[in-house]
Amino acid sequence: MIAVKADKVNKRFYQHNKWHTVIADCSFEVEQGEFIVITGNIGSGKSTLLQLLGGLDRPDSGKIYLGDKELSLLNGSDLASIYRKDIGYVYQNYNLLSGLTVYENIIMSTILNHCRYDKDYLLELVSRLEISDVLYHNSRNLRNEQKQCVAICRALINRPQIILADEPTGNLGEHLKREALDLLLEYIHQYQRTLIMVTNDPEILIFADNIFELNNGQITVTKEKCKKRHILLC
Prior knowledge:
There is one protein chain. By secondary structure, this protein is α/β, with parallel strands linked by helices. 32% of the residues lie in helices and 29% in strands. A hairpin with a 2-residue loop joins strand 9 and strand 10 (218-223). Helix 3 runs parallel beside helix 5 (144-156). It starts with a strand and ends in an 11-residue tail after the last strand.
């Protein structure tokens, strides 16, 4: 079953008096349950591609599908509903609401969806990512490492179909990086969910089902024949 599909997607930006192509005629499919890594140089368009897949931005041309839904055909309300219910997004800059506590940030998607959350699961997440002691602290007072952990918990709490993660371990120390990767891999294996992650970390690449290398707007797909399918051990 196809979870995510890009069909001849193009995206460009106008900067310094000229157009810059970031994504050029990009096509690929991601199966349900796959772990995909998007790699590339700084400024290659990795984050832009992830935002397009999540419906946070629209392509200039081409089509993006989440399951059987073409994103460009959805109105704002339907797109927002899919984003809240079916996608867990880990932002590179965390995107936390600074006026809210850690707890409130994590459960925000469940509030917007008018649904309950699994309290035991929340406690497990914050315990494993070592933010239990700041659960009721204002998020503006956290260290960057803690903010990163909150963003990961927020993406997982709703048990979404697809997780889109932009450098989710970039600000984590070695121990928490391994714990965060454990959580994400355990989640997609247990529930047959899909994970698409932007990272250049070689320690993470070996766990991917496929690696999408983005260069000059084009995707090169590399199959990992000797990937490790077990969970990282601390």
